[in-house]
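Dear support,

I submitted the protein below through the web form. The confirmation email said the job was done, but the results page showed an empty box. After a refresh the structure appeared. I'm attaching both so you can tell me whether what I see now is the final result or a partial one.
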Amino acid sequence: MVQDAIDLVDWRRRVGDLYRLSGPEAMAEFRRRRDHLFKTHPQSPIEPEERAGFTKLNYFAPDPSYRITARLEEGPGDELVIETGGADGAVRYRRAGRLVFEIDGEPCSLTVLSLQQYAGGLFVPFKDATSGHETYGGGRYLFDTAKNTDGLVLVLEPGSRDVTIDFNYAYNPSCVYSPRWACPLAPPENVLKVAIRAGEEMYRTGGSV
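What the results page shows now:
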């Protein structure tokens, strides 16, 4: 159990490092390193018996139009409880804010959730018109600051409510890869009518060929 705890710290550090890459090749390097972690790391959500045959995750082609300026508005601050269906049980969040933006002229908004447990963190799960077809039916995550999956996704401007969000880094929850995991999924208010063809696609056992 001690080794598992050490491995988990290492996993989170390595994943966090991916979101702090920079330069014109950042996205390609991000995907290459992430695939490597999923194949080789002991804390990978890919089942151990599947890792030998795993090649890479499935992604939409990078699309700069999904890097969007959004307005971060105040949220009502009320509590939202999301059941995970697993050992973690119910996870309590506060509706801390709302990201307001447009995609292809369509007004959109996503509730920003603040984790109520120790250490906190901001979290945005979402579903869109690709969910259940091209992407996982339960939705994907845009960012989760408690897991350090935010550096390339959420760019803040000091003194401004305008933020940059990048759906090219949207990713699947761990429960997509294995029933060992139970994950909080997108609430109804975070279901977008538009199709977000950016970020991670539906996972298929073994990954891409």
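Response: this is the final, complete result; the empty box was a page-load delay. The mean pLDDT is 93.
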